[in-house]
Amino acid sequence: MEHFLDYLRNIAEEREGVLQPAYRINGAPDAEERVLEHLAGYLGDGPVRVGNQAFEHVQNDVYGEMVLAVSRLFLDTRFVGEIPQLTGVEIVGSLLDQIESRLEEPDAGLWEFRERSRLHSFSVLMHWAGSRRAVEVAEALGATELAERARTVENAAAELLATRCWNDDVGALTQVAGESQLDAALLLAVHLGYLPPEDPRATTHVDAIRDALSVDGGLLRRYSSPDDFGTPAAAFTVCTFWLVEALAILGRTDEAKELFDYLLSLHNGLGLYSEDILPDTLEQSGNFPQTYSHVGLINAAFRLSRRWD
Questions:
Q1: What is the predicted pLDDT for the residue at 110?
Q2: pTM of this prediction exceeds 0.85
């Protein structure tokens, strides 16, 4: 964990707050994507690629996510005091600068749409979460001015979510500001506390996403609208784990446990998960093994392991 946080800190400092969505393991910014023509892919499901074109994209959710990640350096008692106060203020301040300047900037979104740029609600949600955490860090560092500025950005992001990203007709935060399609990533609005469990919108939000994006057996797609590769059919593994956690947060633990048990039955025999699950056959598909599928599993397991009363 210490090495990973150092890796993130190096990127945040070296790039002066301007971030790409992806870097090499050595921190280098180039990751040119190319197709390996001599490989057919699993069951012929090519193309097989190396690299990742995402390193060229603008994905503005990365700034809030970086704040959430490096905040452990300043809030976790195992690290407190290791980084000088001024350095901490500079790191968080430069990230907050980017959040503030990009609040309403269209981007490729979490799912890396390759041919279009729009104001994605998930990016705005991460602006809100990042600036909210920046307030905590600034207060811990005794940086009053930074805390006040971060609170202003947090309020501006919350206003954007409430006025442009929330759709009363749908009863949910939508994938794109001003549009009606839904996105499973917005379940994190419940996880992150923007929609707390006592807020009636949290229930309509979760149910709307579940109803719109469920495939057979209750597994979730990321979204239902066409993307660069056609109309999505496969369930995206981590999205269903996100749903498990959201249901647990809302107190619907029986529903959450039933869905979690179903997901546990779909691993590959060794407890591993890929990026996708094909709903017709329940076969695994896509990148394998996929890290964030397992992160979703771990977080959902922790959430369900808490006392139900």
A1: 79
A2: yes
